[in-house]
Design goal:
Blueprint lengths: L6 H18 L3 H7 L4 H9 L21 H11 L1 H20 L2 H12 L6 E3 L15 E5 L2 E12 L6 E8 L3 E8 L5 E3 L13 E12 L3 E2 L6 H36 L1 E2 L2 E2 L4 H29 L4 H30 L9 H10 L8 H13 L1
Length: 377
């Protein structure tokens, strides 16, 4: 077992870290306050060819594979969780088309997505049914050579950005089916963005589908067999979310260290106090434990042999990372004392970001149940 990045992966991580520190970090507070990612950041992500990071060169990607994915999302999230979330959802949608799409679908949708000319979304959750695949209320009716979709999807990221979206609907005869839909098509409309407590910059919307016509060739996979696509997408999403919250943890550690070394107390800084040292040592050990779980998950995603096994590993990783992230960021706030809850300090934003982790991409109690399935029955 080799527990280190290879030369290519290390160079990619370094490139993204430098870009994030110079181009995203200075705008991190603005992104959070305005709930918007400036166009200049999107252009920079295009420039360093990040939108196609894991995908093969013949489809316009960088060919770096999913092993390089967690270190990249981690670096983006250190500067802005909103930027990291946008990229994670983009890769989530792409992963579904890459694994289940026809060659024609891949050429049509993956190639422009890898260049950043289109940004993907993934839509399953609904207002009345949550994320229960057996209760999908959005319907798809076959009419000649196309399907007509009607329904509402909730909390959908990237829904306002140009590009395709993978939508799950209940096909009238065969059940849950995945469709590739072009956002902003006729009949596609959005709510006002939800006002999230954190992960701001990447906006979440309700999507309203009113007689949206989708060509039959845009069925992803097979009609009535959307559940495996959903499983794969959710598992990939957990890899992205785990990577994101790893970045939030690392940023919290760095902010705590910087503050402790700079905060004076009489003739010394608070870094000299054992209580502060114990907190920071505890934070550092938890960040490292989370990092290797997350990096390992990227490796497993790239070398997947069993979807069932990967589902369990992704649930285990997401559970550990998001639970642990709450503790790490809480300690970072404690190191700052009263300043930690003031919005002039970055840890306040990181605390609002991390609160969301236990709730998205599957609530953590559900992840516990998934982990136990492989242990108890």
């Amino acid at each position: 077992m080799i527990f280190e990045l290879n030369e290519e992966q290390a160079l990619i991580q370094k490139m993204v870290r430098e870009m994030a520190e110079t181009c995203i970090e200075p705008l991190g507070k603005q992104i959070d306050e305005e709930n918007n990612i400036p166009d200049e950041i999107i252009e920079k992500l295009k420039e360093i060819e990040l939108f196609g990071l894991p995908y093969p060169e013949e489809l316009g990607g960088s060919g770096a594979g999913y092993t390089a994915y967690p270190p990249v999302i981690e670096q983006l999230a250190k500067a802005s969780s909103g930027v990291a979330l946008m990229m994670s959802v983009h890769f989530l949608g792409l992963s579904a088309i890459d694994k289940f799409g026809t060659q024609a679908q891949k050429e049509k949708y993956i190639i422009p997505a890898c260049s950043g000319e289109s940004i993907l979304s993934f839509a399953f959750t609904e207002p009345g049914t949550g994320s229960d695949p057996k209760q999908v209320a959005t319907v798809a009716k076959k009419e000649g050579d196309h399907y007509v979709l009607n329904g509402v999807k909730r909390f959908i990221s990237n829904a306002d950005l140009k590009g395709p979206i993978v939508i799950f609907a209940n096909e009238e005869e065969h059940g849950t089916t995945a469709f590739i839909v072009d956002k902003m098509c006729e009949g596609y409309s959005l709510s006002e963005p939800w006002h999230k407590i954190g992960l701001r910059g990447s906006r979440a919307y309700d999507i309203f589908l009113n007689d949206v016509k989708v060509p039959a060739e845009n069925v992803l996979g097979e009609v009535g067999k959307g559940f495996p696509i959903l499983q794969h997408g959710i598992a990939c999403g957990k890899c992205g979310m785990s990577s994101l919250f790893l970045g939030v943890m690392q940023a919290s550690l760095e902010e705590a260290v910087k503050y402790a070394q700079g905060k004076p107390y009489r003739d010394k800084t608070i870094s000299k106090f054992q209580a502060i040292q114990l907190k920071i040592a505890d934070m550092a050990s938890k960040v490292e434990a989370a990092r290797w779980l997350v990096y390992r998950l990227g490796y497993l995603l790239e070398h997947m042999t069993s979807m069932e096994a990967f589902n369990r590993e992704s649930a285990l990783t997401k559970l550990f990372v998001t639970d642990t992230a709450m503790d790490v960021v809480r300690k970072a706030v404690a190191v700052h004392g009263s300043y930690g809850v003031m919005d002039e300090f970055k840890v306040e934003r990181l605390y609002r970001d991390v609160v969301i982790g236990e709730q998205i991409e599957g609530a953590n109690d559900l992840q516990r149940i998934m982990v136990c399935k492989g242990l108890l029955f």
